Amino acid sequence: MMITWRRIEERDFPLLRTWLEQPHVKRWWNHETTAEAVARDFGPVARREEPSEDLLVFLDGRPLGLVQRSRLRDYPEYLAELAAIIPVPDGAMTIDYLIGDPRQIGQGIGTVMIRSVIEKTWAEHPAAPCILVPVVAANHASWRALERAGLRRVGVGDLEPDNPVDDWTHYLYRVDRPGTGG
């Protein structure tokens, strides 16, 4: 199983839109799926007008999913929300992720994808001391994938959920850069 990725480009928007329309994605991402909404929300990152990274993930050369990766300091309001729950080290990063094809879920591939992105993050972002990931408590599959990928739960707190049907309770997960003793 080989995981690779590249940054999202505008030509990927139709695929991204298809994934966002999948019931297993729509449940947790709750994103508008019109072509205009996808272009509006993902275009600035694709054009590198925004500091985060939207990564199109491939499994053995075939599109698998999306990982959004960013430095928390680039989003001060979000950083402040997390810092109200747990200490956030300077330079900390965060990720969000989805597997687009419903035939690929429930097989441990999400865990492999998360591990791969974490390993590359240490190389591509050498100043990052850790990765913090908030997950709505109701999303068992997501936080279990994080645990299997080596993240540990470090906090519980209220954050606005992506989907208004969810409770505000989120679990916060953390993995530290190897060798830092964090």
Order of helical and strand elements: EHHHEEHEHEHEE
Specify the helix fraction band.
Answer: 25-40%
Rg, alpha carbons = 16 Å
> Could you tell me how far the N terminus lies from the C terminus, measured between alpha carbons in angstroms?
30 Å
Order of strands in the sheet with the most strands? 1-2-3-4
Strand content: 25-35%
Q: What is the assigned CATH homologous superfamily?
A: Gcn5-related N-acetyltransferase (GNAT)
**What would CATH call the class?**
Alpha Beta
CATH architecture: 3-Layer(aba) Sandwich
Report low-confidence residues grouped into runs of 5 or more. none
* Tally of contiguous helical segments: 6
Q: How many domains, as an integer?
A: 1
- Approximate shape: globular
* pLDDT averaged residue by residue: 95
* SS-based class: alpha+beta
Structure characterization notes:
There is one protein chain. The chain contains six helices and seven strands; from the N terminus they run βαααββαβαβαββ. With 182 residues, it is of the alpha+beta class. α1 (13-21) packs across α3 (35-46). The two termini are 30 Å apart. The longest helix is centred in the middle third of the chain and has 16 residues, at 109-124. The chain has helices at 13-21, 23-29, 35-46, 76-83, 109-124, 140-148, and strands spanning 3-7, 53-59, 62-71, 93-99, 130-136, 152-158, 169-176. It has one domain (3-176): Aminopeptidase (3-Layer(aba) Sandwich), CATH 3.40.630. A four-stranded antiparallel sheet has the order 1-2-3-4, sandwiched between helices.
